[in-house]
Amino acid sequence: MLAQHLRVEQFRSLVKERTQDFVGREFVFKAIQDFLEGSSNSDFKSGYVVIRGEPGIGKTALASQLVKRYGYLHHFNIVTQNIRSPRDFLADICAQLVVRYQLSHGALPSSATQDSGFLSQLLGEAVEVARARDLLPIVIVVDALDEAEDTGLAAGANRLFLPAAVPEGVFFILTTREKEEYRLSVDRRRDIYINDRGEQNLADVRLYIETFFNQFREKMMARLIEWRITEDEMLNAVTEKSQGNFMYLVHVLRDIRDGHLTPTNLDSIYDLPVGLKEYYKRHWRFMREQDAPRFRDYFEPVVCILASAQEPVPVSQLVAWTQSRWPHLETTSIREVIRVWREFLDEERPGQGPPLYRIYHTSFRDFLREEVGLTPYHDAIVLTALNKIPGFFGSANLPM
Ligand SMILES: Nc1ncnc2c1ncn2[C@@H]1O[C@H](COP(=O)(O)OP(=O)(O)OP(=O)(O)O)[C@@H](O)[C@H]1O
Ligand SMILES: [Mg+2]
Could you tell me if 296 and 321 lie in one domain? Predict the structure, then answer.
């Protein structure tokens, strides 16, 4: 009964993936622990710790590392997996509370997912158990508040129906992008802003680059020779051009290692793209210039339709969606596009059935939406769905 609401299994691979190469962030962990232990603010005995930062700075990785390190209860909002509703959140966290603190509820009442009432009740019950067993505080990590659904909420309600007040000993650690209107009005709150240009963030950026170098030393040494620069010069250049963004580092270091960014297609290391958006723009343009017809007929439609999907999908679904406008796309050619663009995609392998694909990072999806335009691809998905309704395109509904 409760198991159906739990998403821990679903999040396991995300947590694993985002933490496998995790480095640094000690200053954030320290700040969080200070808040939780009340050493810096003795009046902060419960409430919200809100971690803010720009897209790709590493909030989801940080949330994942918190889960891995401390085993906190957790929920990740993931637009591309269609996990973003208050219902998903409430059912998941309520079920986790019942299981973790062995509360006597065999199932969740239907009211559990309608507002924060039942969640608040469970938090109260869980605190009693945790206090008796010396397990306080109760910490719940919620990633990407900005990705959570914002429609259909009662006026004045918080996103995800997060309760304004929580019992003593309970903390929510939320992450959110910096500029979003995240609709959170709570009694007690502390903020941690990961400043991309801040010294501590830049120290972690350097640590990431150094770790990458050590991990792929032989290959990277060979690249340095091609670039005719020293390790220090590369470290400084990549740090500066990254603008403190981790998603940038992941892409650019991989491209340098694998010979996609070389002195042949870039005059000098100082011509690296500046920041994540510029990296996406350049990569998109570069791929187009490599082979314009292949880009137009294969890469663009498949990547853009993936960016328009609301959930991870198998290749067969991509074939169905592209059939009306791009009939030349079939299983083999779509697989080939996926192979070429693998670095930008996430592959899920459910127990049985074919692998499922989605865009790896929201920031790339945002780039496609803002710079390339996804309307035709959304339309193609809608059209496929309507085509399935018998008689929809009968006389009354013929498209104009
Ligand atoms: N401290 C870190 N150590 C190693 N890799 C990291 C670290 N932080 C982030 N990364 C990697 O950088 C990439 C971007 O990070 P992440 O997805 O956490 O960003 P984000 O802040 O959640 O972005 P968004 O706002 O778009 O959700 C991921 O591939 C992640 O694994
Ligand atoms: Mg994130």
Answer: yes
Q: Please work out whether the CB of residue 244 comes within 6 Å of at least one atom of ligand 1.
A: no
Ligand 1 centroid to residue 64 C-alpha, Å: 10
348 within some domain: yes
pLDDT at residue 179, rounded to an integer: 66
Return the pLDDT at 396: 52
397 found inside a domain: no
Return the residue matching tokens 């480095």: 23
For the segment 277-295, the average pLDDT, to the nearest whole number, is 95
Query: Is residue 228 scored above 90 in pLDDT?
Result: yes
Cβ neighbours for 58, distance < 8 A, ≥ 6 positions apart:
25, 194, 246
Q: Which helix (H) or strand (E) holds 219?
A: helix 217-227
Atom of ligand 1 nearest to the CA of 144: 27
Nearest ligand to the CA atom of 360:
1
- With the most atoms of ligand 1 within 8 angstroms of its CB, the residue from 66, 178, 247 to mutate is 247
Query: Does any ligand 1 atom lie closer than 6 A to the CB of residue 363?
Result: yes
Whether 180 has a pLDDT exceeding 70, the answer reads: no
Across the range 55-79, mean pLDDT stands at 97
The region, left, alpha or beta by phi > 0 then psi within -120 to 50, assigned to residue 206 is alpha
Distance 283 CA to ligand 1 centre (A): 19
Domain identity same for 226 and 255: yes
**pLDDT of 399 over the 80 cut:** no
Indicate the residue among 131, 161, 193 that finishes a domain: 193
Q: Measured from the CB, is residue 61 less than 6 Å from ligand 1?
A: yes
Rounded CA-CA distance 147/76 in Å is 9
Given a cut of 50, is residue 400 above it in pLDDT?
Answer: no
CA distance 383 to 366: 23
Q: pLDDT tens digits for 139-161? A: 999 999 999 998 877 778 999 99
Q: What's the mean per-residue pLDDT of the chain?
A: 93
Residue with CA at minimum distance from ligand 1 atom 15:
58
C-alpha 379/C-alpha 141 separation (Å) is: 36
- Would you place residue 281 in the very low, low, confident or very high pLDDT band (cuts 50, 70, 90)? very high
Same domain, 154 and 28: yes
44 with 63, same domain?
Answer: yes
User: Strand 138-143 to strand 170-177: parallel, antiparallel, or no bridges (unpaired)?
Assistant: parallel
